[in-house]
Amino acid sequence: MVDALSLLPEGHEQQFDSRYRIVIIAAQRARQLMQGAQLSGPTKFKKETSQALQEVLEGRVPFLVGDEAKQAMKEARRVVEREVDAAALARHQEVASELQKDLSVYIDDTPRIEERSEAEE
Predict the structure, then answer these.
(1) pTM
(2) How many CA atoms lie within 13 A of 6 on its CB side?
(3) One-character DSSP codes across the chain
């Protein structure tokens, strides 16, 4: 079995602290490629997983580790939550508007106070 760290181009050995980091980054990049992301450069491979691994090994995929990664993940969650909250609010406003329209068409057929007093006389 070939050690993934030995596949790194000259000068990139210090960029990765373990072969597991290479695998994790390549897997995440492969997922991006499968979802339609553009390649960062030319490649001889056809499969997204091989393309992603080549990009990672050539240092074409930026990544964060440690506290920087945690902070970036928190910020990404906040952005997604804001988008979800905005979408939910828009949907609730749409439903409220539809209910208001429905209720404005509703006809109240209960006798009014004036009609009741005339009927009682």
Answers:
(1) 0.54
(2) 3
(3) ---GGGGSPTT-GGG-S-HHHHHHHHHHHHHHHHTTPPPSS--S--SHHHHHHHHHHTT-S----HHHHHHHHHHHHHHHHHHHHHHHHHHHHHHHHHHHHHHHH----SPPHHHHHHHH-
Find where tokens 């928190």 sit: 74
Residue position matching structure tokens 């429905």:
102
Taking only the tens place, the pLDDT of each residue in 33-51 is: 999 999 988 888 999 999 9
Angle CA 74–84–68, to nearest 5: 10
Q: Which residue has tokens 């990404």?
A: 76
- Any idea how long the chain is? 121
